[in-house]
Amino acid sequence: MSNHLFGHFLDRMPSRDRVLLHTADGPAMTYGGMLDLSGRIANLLLAQGVEPGDRVAVQTEKTIEALMIYLACVRAGAVYLPLNTAYTDHEVSYFLGDAEPKLVVLDPVRVETLASAVYETGASLLTLGEEGKGSLMLGSKEQVTQFEDVAREPDDLAAILYTSGTTGRSKGAMLTHENLASSARVLVDYWHFSQDDVLIHALPIFHTHGLFVATNTVLMAGASMIFLPCFDADEVLRMMERGTVLMGVPTFYTRLLQQPDLTRQATAGMRLFVSGSAPLRAETHAAFAERTGHAILERYGMTETNMNTSNPYDGPRIAGTVGLPLPGVELRVVDAETGAGLPDGQIGMIEVRGPNVFKGYWRMPEKTASEFREDGFFITGDLGRLDERGYLHIVGRGKDLVISGGYNVYPKEIETELDQLAWVSESAVIGVRHPDFGEAVVAVVVPSAGATPDEAATIDALAERLARYKLPKRVCFVDELPRNSMGKVQKNVLRERFASLLDG
After folding, report:
1. pLDDT tens digits, 164-187
2. Per-residue pLDDT averaged across 18-32, rounded?
3. In 3D, which of 135, 139, 158 has the Cα closest to residue 46?
4. pLDDT single digits (tens) 424-461
5. pLDDT, tens only, 241-294
6. At what angle do helices 111-120 and 89-99 cross, to 10 degrees?
7. Where does residue 490 fall: left (phi above 0), alpha (psi -120 to 50 degrees), or beta otherwise?
8. Phi, psi torsion values for 387, nearest 5 degrees
9. Cβ of 383: how many Cβ atoms within 10 Å?
10. Is the dihedral of CA 139, 140, 142, 148 positive or negative?
């Protein structure tokens, strides 16, 4: 028995001297270097007492070494748990307590405030900072490069990614080796990846998009990538001389369109631009095509499922749609209450089934059961319709999810923190359109009796409890929240009222 996911990468791997990772300045790591460093780190994990199935939590900045931790975990049979670098100490403490990792890797700047939370869980602690500084790389240098990959079955866990919940409690989506392998295999074929491709990687690696969609697809194809620390429009545009593919969120494309040097000539060497994690406006799609001659390929996925649908590589890429179900993925639109299938054109709940769909929520059997139909279809919580060509249109999101700059933000989590503030009587959090982020978070607050509304103070108080991308761009104070006859807050009324709040 082999290591299911890493075995797939090895099957497609080119020669050891082929470059896997470039930086903006040039080649940085070969495939052989990847095997050596991930082998050293995998040996270090074993030395730290990490056994197959143990969780390894990582909150570090995006570096090549950080990416190698992921591969080392896969090879060692551990369960990789990436944490958003924007998470506050309060949030990280919850994740550590829930996941109970055997090992935690932190940026050195976070150690002082998080060490106690790490040790309370019984975990070991290593550090990884800029330029490979920290105890992890020091420890790995003492290890040998040879590593015998731990055998893992397709159904064994490879990763847990936390996604916020509507109840305010984050849920850990359990992703198996085959969940990740199947999605990467399909994307290599569907998006025509080859060893000649060079992906411009400007996404974070704590998110399914940058970690699994981008990285796993490159490894499955034996391709290479230009590994950038973050998205910078000038830098990404400059890298198009060397790259062939860009994967991004809609914000990438709105910012690239602001660059006067974005032309057909500048993008002549590129073969594919992919957008996901949030809806791409049809206007952005059209403007990009006019400037570059490239039609952005929009697709649809989520933390729990990896990729579900994609506009075709060869065929019409229709603005405003997320394309067709990917090979091996079954998709249907149903009545949200009854689960009965709906005819094309009618709006309903999107449900999916396939090898890409996650195993369930970590230590939440009841929640897991409630999110699946009896026939195995996963209830995505997204609303959509299928047109006569079979293309999926996302028309809304259940559970009031807000997607801002490619990040999922669940209003209930923010409302829970707001309602704890002394000057807040009640609150409702909504998403409104934003010219750069697609959507932005806006809080609508009813102040407590006698309290003086203070927008800046409210945002500052939340900043101590929530990641920056979850913070409201604006806090609007009202005398009362609109409610229906059952007393439920009518967020649709609030969205209409504040729809243009951030337009200017």
Report:
1. 654 457 899 999 999 999 999 999
2. 96
3. 139
4. 999 999 999 999 999 999 999 999 999 999 999 999 99
5. 999 999 999 889 999 999 999 999 999 999 999 999 888 888 899 999 999 999
6. 20
7. beta
8. -90, 180
9. 17
10. positive
> Which pLDDT belongs to residue 166?
46
H/E stretch holding 325:
strand 324-325
CB 191 within 8 A of CB 217: yes
* CA 282 to each of CA 250, 287, 288, 300, 316: distance values in angstroms, whole numbers, following the listed order: 11, 9, 10, 15, 14
Cα separation of 213 and 301, whole Å?
9
Please give the Cα distance from 97 to 363 (Å, whole number): 12
User: Which of 62, 66, 190, 215 is closest to 127 using CA atoms?
Assistant: 66
- From the list 292, 256, 271, the residue with the least C-alpha distance to 191 is 271
Tell me the C-alpha distance between 362 and 390, whole Å.
Answer: 34
Dig out the tokens for 358 from the structure: 């996650």
Tokens encoding 169: 């409690």
Long-range contact pairs involving 117-126 (C-beta distance under 8 Å, separation at least 24): 117/89, 117/92, 117/93, 120/96, 121/96, 121/97, 123/57, 123/96, 124/48, 124/49, 126/48
Can you tell me the distance from the alpha carbon of 448 to that of 466, in angstroms, rounded to the nearest whole number?
22
pLDDT, tens only, 93-138:
999 999 999 999 999 999 999 999 999 999 999 999 988 999 999 9
Residue type, 112: E
Amino acid letter for position 188 = V
CA angle 464, 468, 471 (to 5 degrees): 85
- Smallest Cα–Cα separation from 130: which of 201, 59, 63, 69? 63
Beta bridge partners, 103, equal 56, 124
Residues near 493 by beta carbon (within 8 Å), at least 6 away in sequence: 482
Phi/psi at 9 (5° precision): -65, -45
- Return the axis-axis angle of helices 411-418 and 455-463, rounded to nearest 10°: 110
Beta strands in 229-295 (DSSP E): 245-248, 272-275
* pLDDT band at residue 396 under the 50/70/90 scheme: low
First to last CA, the chain: 59
Lowest-confidence pick of 98-102, 197-201, 360-364, 422-426: 422-426
Distance of CA 89 to the CA centre of its chain: 20
Q: Are 438 and 250 in contact (CB under 8 A)?
A: yes
Measured in residues, the chain has a length of 504
Host H or E run for residue 175 = strand 171-176
